[in-house]
Amino acid sequence: MSSRMTSAQLSALYDAENQWAADDDFFLALVNERPDSRVLDLGCGTGRITLAVAAAGHAVVGIDPNSGSLAAARQKPGAEGVTWLDGTSAAIPRDAAFDVAIMTAHVAQSIYDDGDWSRTLADINRALVPGGRLALDSRDPAARAWEHWTPAKTRRRCALPDGTALETWMECDPRPGGLVALTEHRVVDGSIDKPETSVLAFRTEDQLRHDLASAGFTVDHVCGGWAGEDVGSGQGELIVLARKPR
Predict the structure, then answer these.
(1) Partner of 167 for a Cys bridge, out of 13, 46, 187, 218, CB 3.0 to 4.6 A?
(2) What is the CA radius of gyration of the chain?
(3) Which pLDDT tens digit goes with each residue over 212-241?
(4) Bridging pattern class, strands 165-175 and 82-86
C-alpha cells in the first residue's frame, strides 16, 4: 500500500533531519557583522536561519519555490518579522536593495541547470547594493559525499510531532557533468510512500569562482569548513564569500 505524506509532514521531517548547526552559526555571524542589514535568504526553506536573522534585528526577505516549506515557515514564532515570497530568484522585487544575500544548506546545489544557475547569480547581483555580499555553501566534489548516501548509512527512524512513525533512507545515482540524483525512500506508519528524487550539482571551486565572476561578483574567499579551514581539509565544504564591486 502506498501512502503520500502531506506538505506539513514533509516540512516537519525536514526540520527533524536538519537542526541548527555550525553552518547556521557561520551565516548568522556573517550577517551580524553589519547591524540592521537588509538580507535576502534565497532558498529559505522552512525558515530556520531566516527567522534567526530577523530575530537579530535585520530586515529579511525569504524566498523559496516550495510552497509547503513557506507555509511551515509562516507558522513559526517570529514569522511576522520576515517578508516571505514564493518562487525562485525571479521573485526578488525589482526595487530591492540588499546588503547581503545568503544561500544556505547547500541550496545552491539544487539549482543544477547551468542556465538557471547563471540567472540566479545575475538576479542576486542585481539586487545587491554596491559592495553588497553573497555567501553560499556547496559540497566539494573532491570529497565525494555521495558515496556515503547509501541505504545502509542513511537509514533513520523517527516520529513526527503529529505522531507519524517514519523510516527513511537514501540512495544516489551519479551522472555525467558533476550531477548526482538523490532519491529518498520513506515508510510512513508502515506504508510505503512514493520516493522523492532530486538532482544536485557538484561544482568545483574553479567552477564556482568562474560562475560568480561571470555574474559580476568578486570572490573574496573560499574556505573548506565552518571554522575557516582550507579547501580540502577534510570538511568537504566549499563556502564562498563574494561581493558586488562598488
Answers:
(1) 187
(2) 18
(3) 999 999 999 999 999 999 999 999 999 999
(4) unpaired
Query: What's the burial of 119, exposed, middle or buried (CB within 10 Å: 0-12/13-18/19+)?
Result: middle
Side-chain-side CA neighbours of residue 168 (13 Å): 20
Question: How many whole angstroms separate alpha carbon 237 and alpha carbon 230?
Answer: 9
Contacts of residue 82, defined as CB under 8 A and 6 or more positions apart, other chains included, come to 47, 50, 51, 54, 60, 61, 62, 73
**Residue 226, exposed/middle/buried by CB under 10 A (0-12, 13-18, 19+)?**
middle
Instruction: Give the span between the Cα atoms of 140 and 34, in whole angstroms.
Output: 29
In whole angstroms, what is the distance from residue 6 CA to residue 86 CA? Answer: 18
